[in-house]
Amino acid sequence: LRHMADQTDFGFSKVNKQDKAARVAGVFDSVASRYDLMNDLMSGGLHRIWKHVAVFFADLREGMEVLDVAGGTADLALAMAKRVGAQGQVVLSDINGAMLCRGRDRLIDAGLKAPAVQCDAEALPFCDHRFDRVTVAFGLRNMTHKDKALAEMRRVLKSGGRLLVLEFSQVWKPLAPINDAYSFKLLPIMGKFFAQDADSY
């Protein structure tokens, strides 16, 4: 029983909790250079619409302070930085250095000044009640202790602020066989040909 308590999900397998962060890091180190291309291919571009909807629901205004957790290649950070303007600030954060570098470079290329902070979502290095908005898009599932990460995001959020979590949910049962075939058969093939990494997908 104790052995089971020390385990957590990693994809469709179980790993020791202390090993998960390193395993996740290995995946993102491997896919960072092709991450955006693979997101477009895997979702048929739908991830861009989902992120646009998340930015809409963030209800951003000029001058707001925003933290993008597990922000990776900065899709959300780019969109949000334009909305908060020069008086506001978006802080891009990610535990993975390779992903964070890609995101930071994209922000710089867009002419935006946004801090990029490498940190663990379960121990955010920010003071209490700092941000008007906190976002995490498709990153919560990779965190070992989701309750700790959510508590940290709540801690750094101002009173009356808003946390937005963009994540997959359960597949509608009639579509499960199609989703499984896509996930287990097609995605690894796409990963092999477009990212030179079938295992990560």
Structural class: alpha/beta
Q: Sheet with the most strands?
A: 5 strands, parallel
For the residues shown, what is the average pLDDT? Answer: 82
Rounded to an integer in angstroms, the radius of gyration calculated over CA atoms is 17 Å
> How many DSSP helices?
8
> Which strand order spans the largest sheet, edge to edge or round the barrel?
5-4-3-6-7
Distance between the termini: 31 Å
Strand content: 15-25%
Level of helix content? 40-55%
Q: Can you tell me the overall shape?
A: globular
Number of strands: 7
Regions with pLDDT < 50 over 5+ consecutive residues?
Answer: none
What is the string of helix and strand elements? HEEHHHEHEHEEHEH
